[in-house]
Amino acid sequence: MPYKDKFSFNYYLPTRIVFGAGELKNISREMDALKIRKSLVVTDSGLKDNPLVKSLLSLLAGRGALFGEAIPDSSNEVVAKGVEAYRGAGADGIVSIGGGSSMDTAKGIAILAKKGGDDLRAFYGLSKVGEPLVPHIAIPTTSGTASEVSMFATIKDHASKVKNLISDPHLLPPVAILDPELTAGLPPMMTAATGMDALSHAIESVHARFYEPISDGLAYQAIRLIVTYLPRCLEKGSDLEARGMQAIASTMAGMAFQNALVGCAHGIAHALGGLFGVHHGLANAILLSHAIRFNTPMYAYRYRYAAEAFGLDIRGLSDPEIGERLAYAVDEFVAKTGLPRKLSAIQIPKESFPEVAKIAVNDPGMKSNIRRVTDPKELIPVLEAAW
Question: Coil, strand, or helix at residue 7?
């Protein structure tokens, strides 16, 4: 695999990953290691009464206060409520349990808990936190966003329908607990959508501008694991081996894109999520094959390893042929999950494409795509192909 001239990079990941079925029971040990006396447990309204969260609170034995108001595409207002709960509980650390929105909400609360105030907007953008935050233990209950090993948080302005990115190394949780028992009850369509989010992280890190050997290696193994184990998760949700391997794959894909960043599919997916509330993993599932085709004419060579990881026979094929073979295989893989494959199937109006493209071209994900995009009109064919 060729790399750039004058090649140099930094790889950074301070998160300690604790993996194993039943590892949730060791939450107090992890809190003690971080010197957390009392935590704010951050989750969403759908999980707050779930046995998983009740079990966590029981394990904390009075060392946790519950904040169960996280929402999909978290907001500044929700984070403000969360930091009020944090201060009111006398907490000195955070435990998040749930999907990406719960973990992103927790990151926002951690910022304000350290910095003061109740308005997160001053921290939108890159590297505006600048110092260590209150300790955060992240416990994902889905296998897709990898927020447990990323320095990113997405906060949506629901009035303007814009997703805002906060990016700072200090957002990385110091500890992540991956317990496959916590994902065993995830419904098939959510399993599929979050699984495709993980696959998009792995493949997009391959065609992101800051690719390098460490992220490539993580992405390669993540792709192999997802292709093998996501179908098993969908076939039998209680298969703990499959659930565990999918959780590891999701985290590895996060470790890849955390450093290499993402690309075209994510840039458009963020715009669709902001404008229409499309689930991020579903949007990526629809867009990923078209993002590969968008990049192939200029950077086809980047897809050889991804195709090998996917298990494709690429002997004797040219790089452009491999790019097309991978795009086709991704589309077929999406079909087997049962997820929609077209934007028309989820009622995205064609008339919205100019607005979607205008937002997407300025998205951080698009700016890190290996093929530079400066004009929204360049993205219209991608949207039309996905429709």
Answer: coil
Cite the beta strand spans of the chain per DSSP E: 16-19, 39-44, 64-70, 93-98, 125-126, 136-140, 152-157, 162-167, 175-178
Work out the end-to-end distance of the chain between its first and last CA atoms, rounded to an integer number of angstroms.
33
Say how far apart CA 37 and CA 217 lie, in whole Å.
Answer: 38
| CA proximity to 39, closest of 58, 62, 20, 21 | 62
Tell me the one-letter amino acid at 73. D
Give the pLDDT of residue 5. Answer: 59
Q: What is the pLDDT of residues 335-376, one digit of tens each?
A: 999 999 999 999 999 999 999 999 999 999 999 999 999 999
Pairing of strands 136-140, 175-178: parallel
Q: What is the pLDDT of residue 135?
A: 97
d(CA 157, CA 162): 5
Domain at 188-386, CATH class: mainly alpha
- What pLDDT is stored for residue 4 in this prediction? 65
Q: What is the pTM of this model?
A: 0.95
CA angle at residue 113 from 194 to 141, to 5 degrees?
A: 20
Give every residue of the chain whose pLDDT is below 70, as ranges.
1-2, 4-6
Domain 16-182 has CATH 3.40.50.1970: yes
Q: For the chain, how many residues are written?
A: 387
CA dist., res. 128 & res. 239, Å (int) = 42
